[in-house]
Amino acid sequence: MSRPPARAEHPRDTGDQTPGDQVLTLPNLISFGRLLGVPLFLYLFLVARADVAAVVVLAIGGTTDWVDGWIARRLRQVSRLGELLDPLADRLYILATLIAFTAREVVPWQFTAALLARELLLLGSLAVLRRYGYGPPPVHYVGKTATFLLLAAFPVLLLATASTSVETAAAAIGWGLAWWGLVLYWVAGGMYVVQAARLVRAARGPGAVA
């Protein structure tokens, strides 16, 4: 017997709206556009070596991270598809940027490894939740903040390598955002793991051992 999706301790603020089955909504179209920006960025950065254009694509993808959710709540167009597309676009942007930046030595491999390790931890938690009939938990505001910081850091770090006139300032700002994003990314991951553990204990019964 399947269980309902897991609920976060502090779920994303969607007001009193219940997610619907809409597909062609403005927030979903924005999320689809963000998804299309991922291969475009990879082409511009790794194939065409058009760093300035790649900065623009990354900046648009990062600044629209909160737009789709805000519009969904504002227009009362919160949908189940949107709740899947939004975090999917975030993760694809982060993973694609990490792979591309590591390949061109914009960020060290240790930074990439730290972010990827967190993703593996979260995937393991989701696998355990599915085993007990739970779906993925709603996106936590700490995770959204971490994602925003990382998506803001990446274009600034790229700008530091593309323009020597602002290299020092851009690198300082970019790495400040990146390290704060990394810390909060792991904090959010730990919160998801704790939540998953509570759900598993509840599913096993009151006498279950952690």
Structure in words:
The chain is 71% helix and 0% strand. The chain contains seven helices and no strands.
Kindly summarize this structure in a few lines.
With 210 residues, the chain is mainly alpha-helical. 71% of the residues lie in helices and 0% in strands. It has helices at 26-47, 51-63, 67-74, 80-103, 109-131, 141-162, 167-204.
- Helical amount: over 70%
Q: What is the subunit organization of this protein?
A: single chain
Radius of gyration: 18 Å
Q: Span between N and C termini?
A: 22 Å
Question: So what's the overall shape?
Answer: globular
Q: What is the H/E string?
A: HHHHHHH
Structural class per helix/strand content? Answer: mainly alpha
Describe how the helices and strands are arranged:
Elements: H1 26-47, H2 51-63, H3 67-74, H4 80-103, H5 109-131, H6 141-162, H7 167-204
Helix pairs in contact: 1-2, 1-3, 1-4, 2-6, 4-6, 5-7, 6-7
Core attributes:
7 helices; 210 residues; mainly alpha; 71% helix; globular
